[in-house]
């Protein structure tokens, strides 16, 4: 429940503190006094959208703080799910809204997101605002309202169905991509084949570029290489005009060998010279073979240059290196294989689609069956609640139908029925308020007051089911008066016997049933308009209810009338509590 609300620099509020109690807490005041400001501040603590326009003029930020008591089991869930320690089962929620548009949320000192705030407060507080009336007027919202009454097993079944629904979307997306355009598919296959053939016919291999670069350099310098090696050969082995190196060394070796017979110390040196001579003869033969084997054909140079140009052309199209080109070819081969296999893929995906759609129909009809059982139960309870609120002849019915969809439906008994994320059903609430009148859509028959009572009945049933500790109503009594207003007041009080109810009201009958009554009013302070709130004692309650009866001026008659309304309310409350 909400124990305390502190509002700072919000709309017309400078600083305001409100202490709420269990039971029925009523907020009243003249039109424009700021009742909606209080509800708006509470809405921010529940994860509502923040607006910089709500920041009090001249201030940098608004701050809304709430102290909440929660159940022990929910305190444990907060620890496990959000890492928030709720000591003594207390939550302090603080939200700052800044002029720059930034919004900060703290729960027991821990920074969390607005989305997390909305999620963690949903099980403990329910705020009914005027826009929720519009959800009753919109039939597409009725299925969501109905599903709120489902048990955990129903939610589990819905989860399974929604997974099947998502899988179907994915399969249909793949099928659409596979056969979106047959002509484009053929064109794509032709292009892939051309690219693969072009790369394959080039017979590229890793390291070829390095080999070609070396070969090109050798061919370009072949004449220089020939001249140099021939010159070296002639100098070493076959001098034409003068003795070659080997000839000179041969003479030296012969002389030294002869002398070595006379002096053994020359034998080692002689062997070195002879070995050098043998090595030079080997080198000279290799030089001759190298020079005679050089490719000096201009055609060979052209071939290498053409090959390099071919590789560069492929690099411009398919990758910066031969490795990238070969990798590109591999990926395109996979694409081609996939397209070649597309017919098989189509058969496989179609089989999967048929299987998924069969499961969707089976699960969808099971959900429909469960929904109809839920609808019977809540229709009976809503009818009973509405009869308690002076709608004696009310009939309430939840209508189910299937919608046809030739484009994206699932075949069922020769017709293609539409499916959606919530199942197969089209759900609409129907109502009849007078005997003998046919059931019609809410939007076509219900008045504003009737709509308020239908929503109150729904909230009443839902609160019992979900064990919500605090219900907040923003003028749920719109469009009613007299005896009906009294019945709505009694329903609100009945709701508040086991929980906290906060209600903005403009009806004296509702205010008279309050356990705690607050009056919201405007005042002037230092030339500025402020919203203030007062917790009313018994005397002030009489005056406020008298004001609500008479308007601006109070008379002794309206004061007496207010006393009578309060006395009647006390009597009714005693009877309801016995």
Automatic annotation (TrEMBL):
Q: Where do the RecF/RecN/SMC N-terminal domain residues begin and end?
A: 1-526
Pfam families noted in UniProt = SMC_N
GO cellular-component terms in the record? bacterial nucleoid
Keywords attached to this Swiss-Prot or TrEMBL record, sorted alphabetically, are:
ATP-binding, Coiled coil, DNA damage, DNA repair, Nucleotide-binding
Q: Which residues form the signal peptide?
A: none
Q: Which GO terms of the molecular function aspect are on file?
A: ATP binding
| Gene3D superfamilies registered for this protein in UniProt | P-loop containing nucleotide triphosphate hydrolases
Q: Which residues form a coiled coil?
A: 301-359
- The transmembrane segments are none
Which GO biological process categories is it annotated with?
Answer: DNA recombination; DNA repair; SOS response
Q: Which domain of life is it from?
A: Bacteria
Calcium among keywords = no
Family (UniProt) = Belongs to the RecN family.
Q: What does this protein do?
A: May be involved in recombinational repair of damaged DNA.
What is the official name of this protein in its record?
A: DNA repair protein RecN
Report the source organism.
Proteinivorax hydrogeniformans
């Amino acid at each position: 429940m909400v124990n305390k609300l502190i509002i700072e620099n919000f709309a017309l509020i400078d600083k305001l503190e409100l202490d709420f109690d269990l039971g029925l807490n009523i907020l009243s005041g003249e039109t424009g006094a700021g009742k909606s400001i209080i509800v708006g501040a509470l809405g921010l603590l529940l994860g509502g959208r923040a607006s910089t326009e709500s920041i009090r003029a001249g201030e940098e930020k608004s701050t809304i703080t709430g102290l909440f008591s929660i159940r022990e089991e929910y305190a444990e869930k907060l620890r496990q799910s959000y890492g928030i320690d709720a000591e003594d089962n207390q939550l302090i929620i603080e939200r700052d809204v800044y002029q720059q548009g930034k919004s900060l949320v703290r729960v027991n000192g821990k920074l969390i997101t607005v989305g997390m705030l909305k999620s963690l407060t949903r099980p403990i507080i329910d705020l009914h605002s005027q826009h929720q009336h519009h959800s009753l007027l919109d039939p597409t919202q009725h299925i969501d309202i109905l599903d709120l009454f489902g048990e955990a097993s129903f939610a589990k079944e819905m989860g399974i169905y929604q997974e099947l629904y998502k899988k179907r979307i994915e399969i249909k997306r793949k099928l659409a991509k596979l056969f979106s355009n047959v002509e484009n598919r053929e064109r794509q296959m032709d292009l892939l084949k051309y690219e693969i053939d072009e790369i394959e016919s080039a017979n590229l291999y890793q390291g070829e570029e390095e080999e070609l670069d070396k070969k090109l350099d050798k061919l370009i310098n072949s004449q220089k290489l020939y001249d140099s090696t021939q010159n070296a050969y002639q100098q070493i082995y076959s001098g034409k005009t003068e003795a070659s190196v080997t000839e000179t060394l041969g003479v030296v070796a012969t002389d030294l060998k002869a002398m070595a017979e006379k002096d053994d110390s020359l034998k080692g040196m002689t062997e070195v010279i002879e070995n050098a001579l043998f090595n030079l003869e080997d080198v000279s033969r290799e030089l001759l073979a190298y020079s005679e084997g050089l490719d000096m054909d201009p055609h060979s140079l052209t071939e290498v240059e053409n090959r390099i140009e071919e590789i560069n052309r492929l690099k411009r199209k398919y990758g910066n290196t031969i490795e990238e080109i070969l990798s590109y070819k591999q990926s395109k081969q996979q694409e081609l294989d996939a397209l070649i296999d597309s017919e098989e893929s189509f058969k496989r995906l179609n089989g999967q689609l048929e299987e998924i759609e069969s499961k969707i129909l089976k699960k969808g009809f099971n959900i429909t069956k469960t929904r109809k059982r839920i609808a019977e139960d809540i229709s009976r309870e809503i009818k009973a609640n509405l009869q308690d609120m002076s709608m004696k002849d009310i009939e309430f019915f939840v209508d189910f139908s299937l919608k046809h969809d030739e484009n994206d439906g699932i075949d069922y008994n020769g017709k293609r029925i539409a499916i959606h994320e919530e199942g197969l059903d089209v759900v609409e609430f129907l109502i009849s308020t007078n005997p003998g009148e046919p059931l019609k859509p809410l939007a076509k028959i219900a008045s504003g007051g009737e709509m308020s009572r239908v929503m109150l009945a729904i909230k009443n049933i839902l609160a019992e089911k979900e064990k919500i500790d605090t219900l907040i109503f923003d003028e749920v009594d719109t469009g009613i008066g007299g005896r009906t207003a009294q019945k709505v007041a009694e329903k609100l009080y009945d709701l508040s016997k086991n929980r906290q109810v906060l209600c903005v009201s403009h009806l004296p009958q509702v205010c008279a049933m309050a356990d705690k009554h607050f009056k919201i009013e405007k005042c002037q302070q230092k030339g500025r308009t402020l919203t203030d709130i007062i917790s009313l004692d018994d005397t002030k309650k009489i005056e406020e209810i008298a004001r609500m009866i008479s308007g601006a001026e109070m008379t002794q008659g309206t004061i007496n009338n207010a006393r009578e309304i309060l006395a009647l309310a006390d009597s009714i409350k005693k009877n309801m509590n016995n």
